Amino acid sequence: MNASALAAASATPTPAWRAVCTRDDLVADSGVVVLLDGQQIALFYVPAADGNPLYAIENRDPKSGANVIGRGLVGHLGGSLVVASPLYKQHFRLADGSCVQYPEQQLRTWQARFNGDTIEIA
Question: Which one of the record's GO molecular function terms can you name (predicted)?
Answer without folding.
Answer: 2 iron, 2 sulfur cluster binding
